[in-house]
Structures are given as C-alpha cells and as structure tokens.
Amino acid sequence: MTDGAAGTKAFAPEYQGALGALSVNASLPEVLASGLREREAARAAGDAGEAARCGLAVAEAYRRLGRAEEADQAWKESFRAARSADRPDAMAWALWSGGTLARQRGAFRLAYRLLRLAAEWGERGGDVVVRGYSLAGLAETGRIQGDYEAVALLHEQLLAEARRRGEARHTVWALEGIAQIHRNTGSYDKALALFEEAADTALRAEDRRGWAWALRGVADVVSVRDGDTERALALLARAEDACREIGLTSALAYNHKMRGNVLYRAGRHQEARELYEQALEEFTGMDEARGTALARLGLAKARARLGRDPRETAGELVEIRALLERIGLRQARQMAAAAADELGVGPLPDPRRAAAAAPSPAEELRSADPEALR
C-alpha cells in the first residue's frame, strides 16, 4: 500500500521558534535543555510569542520524559505567554500539549476539553497542523477509552488528510490507531498489516518514535496471534533501543509492559512478573494512571500463576476494576471479569459504580464547552 507521505521525512511541529530546526528524533534531555535556555532568552528579551513557542518544547519534553508536574506547569506558562502575545495558534499548541498530558494522566474529561479548545483555537489562528493534531488527540482519547464506534471514522478521516498533506508522522499515528482498533476487536491480520505499514512508513520517514510504537504493535500481534514469543521479544528489544536513544520514558514503560504480556502468554510467569513490576514502578513514577492500572493487572495475573492466594487475587482485581472505571475505560469490567475467569477466582463482587464516573467518549466528542478554560 502506498500513501502521500511515503517519500517525506517526519518533522516535529511542536518544536518552534528558535527550536524549529530540531529533529523529530532529537534526544529529549537535549530538547529540554535547549528549550529552557531559549525560553529564558525570549523572556529576557520581552518576546512573549517566542517564549510561548519555546515553552511548548519544554512542556513536551517534560511530558515525554515522564515529569508530569513540570509538564503541567510548562504548558500553562506557554499558554499564558501566547495569550499575552495574542497568538491564537500558539495558544492552540499549548492547549494541545495540556490535553495530551491530561490523557496521559488518565484525566479524560479534562483532555477532551483542552483538545477541543485546541482545535478551535487552531482553526481561529489558521494553523491546520495543530488543528489536525488536536482532532487526532480527541480520536486517540476516545480509542483508549474503548469507544471504537465513536472514533473509527475520525481515525480514517485523519489518515486520509495526513496522506493528502504528505505528513509522514501523522500518517504513522493514524495507521497505528486504526491497527490498534483492529487488534482489540480480534482482526489480527488487518492489525498486523497496518502496524507493519506504520513501521515501514516511519522507518522511511526517519521517525524513530513512531517506528518504536509500531514495532510494539507488531510484537503484540505476532505474540497473541502466532505465539511467536522470540520474534516478539526481538522486536521489542529493537523498539527499546529507539526509546532509550531518544529518551521516551512513557513509551519505554509501555514496551516493558508489553514484554511482560508476551512472556505471560508464553507461560514464563516469573519473568513476566519482573517486567510488570518494572513497568509498574515506571508508570507510577510518571503519574500515568492507565499504564499503572494495566501493569497492576498484568502483575496480579502473573502472581496468581505463581501461587498467590485466590482471595487476594480476587480482591486486587476488584481494586483494579475500580481504578480502570474511574479513569474511564469502558472495557474495565470486561477486562477484570476475563482475568478472574482465566485465573479461576470469579465471579467478582459487583459493588455499585462510583458516582464520579468518567465521561462517555461519544458524549464528549459530540459536546462542546468553549468556556472550560475561563
């Protein structure tokens, strides 16, 4: 399959102003150091617009390095600087960064609001790229929550737009999102083809980040569909090298969790337990709620296979189910029930749902709240 992005190189539009020449594969610690330096220079010169642009790179570097509190402060500072400079496009980019961080931390309602505002301000500012990134963020938020019907068409539309505009990085993102939907609904052949296309597109575009995520998807499918443990582990090892090269803390943690999944499926439960423990520590350290819950689920299953008391396993599965529901994953009950059945500790007790449940993805994608940030 060919696409309009096949011959283009990936670029990082979130690196702007004095940082605009940075590669998409630039080491995140180096991006952070440069961003902080240039942001301070812009502030000293009284250039709020430049401070906003450099502050965006700071926020994104902090986020991808797993430093959530610093990322939160940085995107808000970028937004305030953009607002003072009357730059709606820069405001949109700051809101996109904040919405992406909110999703990473499991705050889906806030993510929807910020990403929706980012798309609106991007349109007002005439920046089609940030508008596309923001719509993609909304689609990804809904996909992570498990509402595939609500976001599948948006993923396809964004893929077509990315190909038309020749944006390799966004083509890779959209391919991976659609592949993940197919994987999660059991269409493994389609998922594998799309993940492999994403990996090939990313490789030709010199997008190490997208390539690492795509390899993780390929490894997952060849493990679950083919039982090919060694190939899956080899792919994950290659992806890990790319994550370490750039400094992708969150992607590295998800890589470790996936390695745990592969080992668990192969019956190598002690090794899986060690990987889940490592991933859990990494996710907890970066305040990534969804990753934390999924690593706990894998760890609970591995411990059960290693002889843990069934009552303790059932109790932890109830806790994990509640955590996943608070985050807003629609498949939380199904995941917990499937784990309980697999481990022979079900059925789980079914207490009343928490009153402060997260929003329905379809409802959030249909609604609008432009006053949310005021």
From TrEMBL:
Family annotation (Gene3D superfamilies): Tetratricopeptide repeat domain
SMART domains (UniProt xref): TPR
Phylogenetic classification of the source organism: Bacteria, Bacillati, Actinomycetota, Actinomycetes, Kitasatosporales
Stretch list, region Disordered: 343-374
SUPFAM superfamilies according to UniProt: TPR-like
One Pfam family it belongs to: TPR_12
Name of this chain's protein: Tetratricopeptide repeat protein
Domain of life: Bacteria
Bias type Basic and acidic residues, positions: 363-374
